[in-house]
Specification:
This protein has 12 helices and 14 strands. It has 369 residues and is an alpha/beta fold. α6 crosses α7. Bound molecules: nicotinamide-adenine-dinucleotide, 3-isopropylmalic acid and manganese (II) ion.
């Protein structure tokens, strides 16, 4: 099916440790399934700052634009925390999202049966849970102008950020949420704070208008963001698809991670608009960060990164059988009691990043046989 190109951007901290495992799966696909990818690797974040002076070079950005899909590890760390805003590792990721126009970030929080007891919530609350958070990713307070830190001259300073959304930005991300809902539980909950923010009120009005015009068959509800963060831990089963802004989506997805047992379990897909051939720019990234506290110790859970590869197989390459197989392999291995530290439970077998990935690969061999 022609060439499939991937750009790998491992980044910092545990990013390279989990990305190393992804490479092995890509090799496995070529060897065992005859599915070949052209793979390039680039620097981003602190790794790029150290080697190239900036968190993302124009050359790497161009490679990202040209690739069918980008796989992103994680960026950031204490070493670079003192740098100015545009020079921080995180700025590399934000620039990628913005310049590739990846406005929709799909963050599924799915609870594997074997991990029901690994969640900090009661088993009955999380069993069978499958929530999809659709986070707006290129607007809102992350990118609004004016922004900055001003010196007021009297020993005082002022930090400024601007929350701003337009009709078009709201419609395009809400459309993704409605389309996804139609293929799942057919329910969308739109989340904002329209009781205190005009941008939130506009969000609610525009989602309502789009719903009325085109998606009347989908059940739509609205919730204030503070209430939603409460409902997510009280009764998460009420949600199917949640659509929300950049900042609320960031926070609610970390919260949702704990339903599944660990932030080390959550993949995501960041998607752009389809081109004339229906192909979307896409970057796949785990929800977690560079985890400086465990970096370099072969302890990180590689599952979020591997499931992000799974989302790439599905969304960018239509390789649904292979994506299903990968998810099944993860599920089977968790069932055997194999656990990285973050999902460790009494009586289970603790393993390293590489052993977890090895075991999932071997399970894939069995499933593919
Ligand atoms: P984090 O997600 O890196 O870590 C939070 C906690 O979760 C830590 O205790 C960590 O050990 C644990 N954890 C995270 N991923 C794990 C995994 N795969 N397996 C096991 N445990 C895991 O968030 P943080 O500590 O707030 O941020 C650290 C750095 O990462 C910061 O510089 C931040 O800006 C950056 N960050 C980057 C991204 C990204 O690149 N997409 C996302 C979030 C945070
Ligand atoms: C995430 C991260 C990023 C965000 C940071 C690292 C820029 O927390 O992907 O969830 O805030 O979007
Ligand atoms: Mn985050």
């Amino acid at each position: 099916a022609g060439t499939r190109s991937l750009l790998l951007l491992p980044g910092d901290g545990i990013g390279p440790e989990v990305m190393r495992q992804v490479r092995r799966y890509i090799d496995w696909m070529a060897r065992k399934r005859g599915i070949e990818f052209t793979v390039e690797e680039g620097l981003v974040g602190g790794a790029a700052i150290d080697a190239q002076g900036v968190p993302l070079t124009d050359a790497t950005l161009e490679k990202a634009k040209a690739a069918d899909a980008v796989l992103f590890g994680a960026v950031g760390g204490p070493k670079w925390d003192g740098l100015g805003f545009d020079m921080r590792p995180e700025a590399g990721l934000l620039r990628l999202r913005k310049e590739l126009d990846l406005f929709a970030n799909l963050r599924p929080a799915k609870v594997f049966d074997a991990l029901v007891d690994a969640s900090s919530l009661k088993p009955d609350i999380v069993r069978g849970l499958d929530v999809m958070i659709v986070r707006e990713l290129t607007g809102g307070i992350y990118f609004g102008e004016p922004r900055g830190i001003e010196d007021l001259g009297n020993g005082q300073r002022r930090g400024v950020n601007t929350q701003v959304y337009t009709t078009a930005e709201i419609h395009r991300v809400a459309r993704i949420a409605f389309e996804l809902a139609r293929k799942r539980g057919n329910k969308v909950c739109s989340v904002e704070k329209g009781n205190v923010m005009e941008s939130g009120l506009l969000w609610r009005q525009e989602v309502t208008a789009l719903h009325r015009a085109e998606y009347g068959d989908v059940e739509l509800s609205h919730m204030l963001a503070d209430a939603c963060s409460m409902q997510l831990v009280r009764n998460p089963g009420q949600f199917d698809v949640i659509v929300t802004d950049n900042l609320f989506g960031d926070m609610l997805s970390d919260e949702a991670a704990m339903l599944t047992g660990s932030i080390g379990m959550l993949p995501s897909a960041s998607l752009g608009a389809p081109d004339a051939d229906g192909r979307r720019r896409a970057l796949y990234e785990p929800v977690h960060g560079s985890a400086p506290d465990i970096a370099g110790r072969d302890m990180a859970n590689p599952i979020a990164m591997l499931l992000s590869l799974g989302m790439a197989l599905r969304w960018s390459f239509d390789l649904h059988a292979e994506a299903d197989m990968l998810e099944q392999a993860v599920q089977n291995v968790l069932r055997t009691g194999m656990r990285t530290s973050d999902i460790m439970q009494p009586g289970m077998a603790r393993c390293s990043t590489s052993v977890m990935a090895d075991t999932i690969l071997r399970e894939l061999d069995k499933l593919a046989a």
